[in-house]
Write a structure and sequence with these properties.
This protein is α/β, with parallel strands linked by helices and 542 residues long. Among the domains are: 31-41 and 56-187, Rossmann fold (3-Layer(aba) Sandwich), CATH 3.40.50.980; 441-539, GMP Synthetase, Chain A, domain 3, CATH 3.30.300. Bound molecules: 5'-O-[(R)-(benzoyloxy)(hydroxy)phosphoryl]adenosine. 5'-O-[(R)-(benzoyloxy)(hydroxy)phosphoryl]adenosine is lined by residues 199, 243-244, 248, 314-317, 336-341, 345, 361, 419, 421, 433, 436, 442, 445, 447.
Length: 542
């Protein structure tokens, strides 16, 4: 079934859309069109470098032609406008080729992370009624072709599995491209470009519908703030499918500006530093635990990192203490980023004073980003006090894809997204992230919805009840702890058996509880719900 793009989620009311257009935020561009324009303007400039296992490069012209040929091949296989295609590729050149090919025909990439396994991918494929799934052959020792074979059985609508590399029983991606048969009728700028994943607070991850217009505005805004231009050489260290390395300013921002994106196969300094040196990298984005590792490794001084001008750090709270050490160690500027795949992105600015850069998480991209900080009753708190962050604006969604019930809770009636973050605003308008009201664990930037893991653990025959909470961790910021109540009379279980059970259910490894503790009962709130706040404070004893 092909759904008309743009109709499966609430979108901006006409008045807002008109305002965002009039302000010049939404310019009527599409991703396919942008690549075409850049290829015409500077065909021979290098757009993309994939250094592993051997160095491959794509000029803007080559990337554009490649996207055309792949788009034609996808179209010849019946993939068209509005069709969903689950893309689960690591940081390889094929990722960029595939998504631009899909943009061009108006098919919607659904971005799975390389760490996702059967539970997540089969849900993405069935929920989105995906017609195709794109995988590597193997990645980090895991065979994605076998996963694809299993997923295929669970998602009957999946007509194609394309493999970058050795295909096994599936279709090699290399066989897809063919001569374009005229130019496909592309999507319109206000239509959906892709579905991004939410960090999630619920049993299953929600999908975030982003349009060409809104996402391209966030790229332009990010580029301006970060100083991205044609000379930028950006290293994609985090998984390319995540919103942060994709758009803040990310590889899409850099391609928009005509710069060069270099894909880093692994984030560790041993892999990344030689690439920074060899490729003369000027900019990159890191999550706080990685920024710590880089800061320490840089002190060893074995690599020439002098080309680096800017490191963006975000995705989870970066302590001021760690932030202070980054600039001297890496010899570049620091910018903190506090963003979310749903939209709103905040950056510290290059002309902020150093104290603001290390102690705040920045301020919004756009003058039209509306930010409210409210108490539990939804009233604005006095300026400078803590509260829950609500936001609405030209690149923040008005609703998740096909999730009307959840949308009724996650958005206010007048369209503000309830971020679930507890923030405070300084007189300069910078936000400080002080905590979280939503039930989520932020494991070094990787988000875990406790409910998703609780549902899995509950399926264990010996388990009566479970509650998953965060535990502070000096390196990751937070780790996960599952408190488990066993059924009376059940065989005693070891923590390792609970972890194995979760892993065997086929979820991403980062979601497997780091710690498991058996208890006799949970504390309850006045209304009889499990008191997670109290559980979290007992977890702090760990
Ligand atoms: C980014 O996006 P998501 O969708 O994986 O996660 C969003 C959530 C935020 O609501 C907040 O809870 C947390 O991640 N977060 C931060 C943070 N940046 C994100 N918490 C504290 N300090 C920060 N700097 O994580 C994301 C998307 C675009 C750019 C950057 C990060």
């Amino acid at each position: 079934m092909t759904l008309t793009p743009g109709v499966d989620a609430p979108t901006w009311p006409d008045g807002f859309a008109a305002r965002y257009r009039a302000a010049g935020h939404w310019r009527g561009e599409t991703f396919g069109g942008v690549l075409r324009a850049r290829a015409a303007a500077h065909p021979d400039r290098v757009a993309l470098v994939d250094p592993a296992p051997w160095r491959r490069t794509w000029t803007y012209r080559e990337l554009d032609e490649r996207a055309d040929r792949l788009a034609a091949g996808f179209a010849a296989r019946g993939i068209g406008r509005g069709d969903r295609v689950v893309v689960q590729l690591p940081n390889v050149g094929e990722f960029v080729e595939v998504v631009f090919a899909l943009f061009r025909i108006g098919a919607l990439p659904v971005y799975a992370l390389p760490a996702h396994r059967y539970a997540e991918v089969s849900w993405f494929c069935s929920f989105t009624e995906a017609v195709a799934y794109v995988v590597p052959d193997t990645h980090a020792g895991f065979d994605h072709r076998e996963l694809a074979s299993r997923v295929r059985k669970a998602a009957p609508g999946l007509r194609h599995v394309f493999v970058a590399g050795e295909p096994g029983e599936h279709t090699p991606l290399s066989e897809v491209p063919c001569a374009p048969d005229g130019r496909p009728v592309g999507p319109r700028p206000h239509e959906l470009a892709f579905l991004q994943l939410s960090g999630g607070t619920t049993g299953v991850p929600k999908l975030i519908p982003r349009t060409h217009d809104d996402y391209l505005y966030s790229l332009r805004g990010s580029n301006e703030i970060c100083g991205v231009d044609a000379d930028t050489r950006f290293l994609v260290v985090l998984p390319a499918a995540h919103n942060f390395p994709m758009s803040s300013p990310g590889w899409l921002g850099v391609l928009y500006a005509g710069g060069t994106t270099v894909l880093c196969p692994k984030p560790d300094p041993a892999t990344a530093f030689p690439l920074v040196e060899r490729e003369r990298i000027t900019m990159t984005g890191l999550v706080p635990p990685l920024a710590l590792v880089w800061t320490e490794a840089a002190a060893a001084g074995r690599h020439d990192l002098s080309s680096l001008e800017l490191a963006l750090v975000g995705g989870a709270k970066y302590s001021a203490e760690a932030a202070r050490r980054l600039e001297p160690a890496l010899g570049c500027r620091l910018m903190q980023v506090f963003g979310m795949a749903e939209g709103l992105v905040n950056y510290t600015r290059l002309d902020d004073d150093p104290e603001t850069v290390v102690t705040t998480q920045g301020r919004p991209i756009s003058p039209d980003d509306e930010v409210r900080i409210v108490d539990d009753a939804g009233h604005d708190v006095p300026e400078g006090e803590f509260g829950q962050l609500l936001t609405r604006g030209p690149y923040t969604i008005r609703g998740y894809w096909k999730a009307p019930e959840h949308n009724a809770k996650a958005f206010t009636e007048d369209g503000f997204y309830r971020t679930g973050d507890i923030v405070r605003r300084t007189p300069s308008g910078h936000l400080l992230v002080e905590g979280r009201a939503k039930d989520q664990i932020n494991r070094g930037g990787e988000k875990i919805a406790p409910e998703e893991i609780e549902n899995i653990v509950l399926a264990h025959p010996s388990v009566h009840d479970v509650s998953v909470v965060s535990v502070p961790d000096p390196y990751l910021g937070e780790r996960s702890l599952a408190y488990v109540i066993l059924r009376s009379g059940a065989e005693p279980l070891k923590p390792a058996a609970v972890k194995r059970f979760v892993r065997e259910r086929g979820v991403a490894a980062y979601k497997v509880p780091d710690l498991v503790e058996f208890v006799d009962a949970f504390p309850h709130t006045g209304v009889g719900k499990v008191n997670k706040k109290q559980l979290r404070s007992s977890a702090e004893q760990h």
